[in-house]
Amino acid sequence: MNPVVIDASAGAELATDTFGARARRALLPADAVPWVPELFFVECGAVLRRWELNRILTHAQIDQAIDALMGWPLRITQVRGLSADAWRLRANVTFADAVYVALAEHLGADLLSDDRRLANTPGLPVRVVHLPHRQLTRPGQARPQPVFSCFAVKFP
């Protein structure tokens, strides 16, 4: 069992059935045990709302993404126990991002994120796994090379 913390930037993508979502799934180890703080659902909802308002995804796609989020076998933890450690990271990252980092640190896990700023933050106590900048697959193209090698895991 390999714990992996998933932040909302990656989680919202993973909940969709887009080319980018499939590429991000390939970054997860086959034995991944996905962990999120309870904040994850609020942030994913905000991302999905923005995508619907900006017509990035259809209403039906958003509904499917929400169903996918609610059906995932996620391990969920409260923010309260992570707050002190998250606060210690405030000089370099937002408090919300720091909650994900603190959870990954507690678990000895990688953090899967789509947030380039977070991924490039120096001195984080965890490894942030992400797709290289602007590397998404299109029909007929080869899969992007992940930042590290791993196998795909499928979410229900």
Biggest sheet record: 5 strands, parallel
Uncertain spans: 135-156
Q: What is the fold named in CATH at topology level?
A: Rossmann fold
**Radius of gyration computed on alpha carbons:** 15 Å
Name of the CATH homologous superfamily:
5'-nuclease
Just name the CATH architecture. 3-Layer(aba) Sandwich
Relative strand content: 5-15%
Tell me the helix content.
40-55%
- The CATH first-level class comes to Alpha Beta
Strands side by side in the biggest sheet: 3-2-1-4-5
Number of self-contained structural domains: 1
Mean pLDDT metric: 85
Number of strands: 5
Give the overall shape, derived from the CA principal axes: globular
Q: In terms of structural class, how would the helical and strand content be classed?
A: alpha/beta
Order of helices and strands: EHHEHHEHHEHE
Helix segment count? 7
Q: Alpha-carbon distance between the termini?
A: 18 Å
Task: Characterize the structure shown.
The protein has 156 residues and is α/β, with parallel strands linked by helices. Helices cover 42% and strands 12% of the residues. The protein has one domain: Rossmann fold. The chain has helices spanning 8-14, 19-25, 39-53, 59-71, 83-88, 95-107, 116-119; strands spanning 2-6, 32-37, 75-77, 110-112, 128-129. Helix 7 (116-119) links the parallel strand 4 (110-112) and strand 5 (128-129). Helix 1 crosses helix 3 (39-53) and helix 3 (39-53) runs antiparallel to helix 4. The two termini are 18 Å apart. Mean pLDDT is 85; it is low at 135-156.
